[in-house]
Amino acid sequence: MNVHKASNILISVIGKGRLKKDQTVGYEQTEYVFNPDCENNKRYTASKTAFFGIALYEYLRNVESINIDKFIIIGTNKSAWSELYQILPHDVQSSEGITEMCLKVYEEEKKGISEQTLLKWQNTLTKYVPSLKFHKIEPVELGKGIDILLKELDKDGAHNVIFDMTHAFRNIPIVFSYGIMLLKYLRKINNIRIFYGAHEMKEYFSGLVDGQSPVIEISFIDKLVKMIEAMATFENSGYFVPILNQLGFGNKEKTYFRLEMNRQPRREIEEIIKGLEDKLNTAEHDYEREIVEIMYREFCEMNRQEKLFQRMYKRSQFFYERKQYLKALILLYEATIVLFADVYNIKDNMNYDAREEARDKLRNEIKNVGSDANSNRLIKDQEEAEILKELEYVRNAAVHGSSSRSNQNYLEDIDSFKILFNSALKVFEKLLRRRDEIKKSF
Predict the structure, then answer these.
(1) What start-end ranges are recorded for coiled-coil regions in this protein (predicted)?
(2) Residues contacting 145, CB < 8 A, separation 6+
(3) Which of 60, 66, 258, 280 is most buried as measured by Cβ atoms within 10 A of its Cβ?
């Protein structure tokens, strides 16, 4: 099997430079200091530049030894494209051809650089830095920016994305941040790193001198996105493995699988509950504590359902609320079967034959309603019997992809299905109460 190495993609949004105060050619430059909160010998001060993307490119190559496979630069017609001469080797920057072309770009970008000039400038620079790719957009063409990234990131390859959100109109890097998160679902992205040249935050770091700006790697954004994705996954599907992983519980895939297969992982659930209790006391932030509280309530509720039919019933409600109707339908029907097994003392309800015996008890009670309802233990009237009969028909039709035997349109019309399902929930609750009364009488 061929394993391709992930490509390193640097994405930078270039803004309009601040003209030099002495009115000479060019823009105000800054020394960007990487790792500003570390000791002096661990800091890295990049070459002076008006465009942070160049400083980041230098740092990644010189300090982290990362080879940049593609350096995508996106800006407007008035961005400081001319500053990109600084990405060239020093002995090339002052050559006559480069200087002449750079001045042309500098003068033109003041009023708005043309596509032709920008392309010529890109072709000039890529002779020395082949990874460069320029794209010009209007500040309101936000969707176009995401389209550009889709085209630049190979659909079949894997990528490590590094994003510089320092420059340009503020709405552009904000939208690009969200766009890159969306790309995770459209392209294979192994890792996302976000950097910010924080010129306005230098007072928060000691040891910086005038003309220097700290650089911040905002790893917190990636953490939040993973937390958001994990919570969304749980809320929409009930799959709790990612959110527990984000909370520091490691991989709980086996526990989830056992729950899905209607096993009884009681010990594992109790361990998770204990861990969540500890997290409630040690959570550093309120948002973490609230997430832990949500999960704690969920697992405590799970743990309270001592009987399998109770857990199935609760899970069916859970999935119904999240519009996973097939799962909800199957679980509610099976919960009814297991409830009958419990009431009729049919042992080993995990066994196929035992389930079939319980199913027969259910069907017999449905038949008895019209002639001998008093002999039934759970089903007491015709309406309950009809609802449970419809539930079985619809469950079978949905599972097997066949037509329902009933004359109702439950498989085609969502409103009809919801009426049936909610009616079946109410019937199940009645059966539960009757089961409890039976158990009390013994």
Answers:
(1) 266-293
(2) 74, 135, 137, 172, 175, 176, 179
(3) 60
Range of the domain at 107: 7-217
Structure-derived torsion over alpha carbons of residues 69, 70, 71, 76, reported in degrees to the nearest 10: 180
> If DSSP codes are grouped into helix, strand and coil, which group holds residue 138?
coil
DSSP reduced 3-state for 217: strand
Position 2 scores a pLDDT of 42
Q: Running DSSP on this structure, what letter comes out for residue 347? A: S
Phi then psi for 126, rounded to 5 degrees?
A: -70, -10
pLDDT digits (tens, 9 = 90+) for 22-54: 667 778 889 999 999 887 778 899 999 989 999
* Whether residue 91 has pLDDT greater than 90: no
Asked if pLDDT for residue 77 goes beyond 60, the answer is yes
Residue where one domain finishes, among candidates 160, 185, 217: 217
User: Which pLDDT does position 404 carry in this prediction?
Assistant: 62
**Pair (261, 359) in one structural domain:** yes
Q: What is the largest CA-CA distance in the chain?
A: 104
316 lies in a domain?
yes
Q: Which residues contact 60 (CB under 8 A, 6 or more apart)?
A: 8, 10, 66, 68, 162
- CA 438/CA 61 separation, integer angstroms: 75
| Same structural domain, 290 and 431 | yes
Element (H, E) at 178: helix 171-183
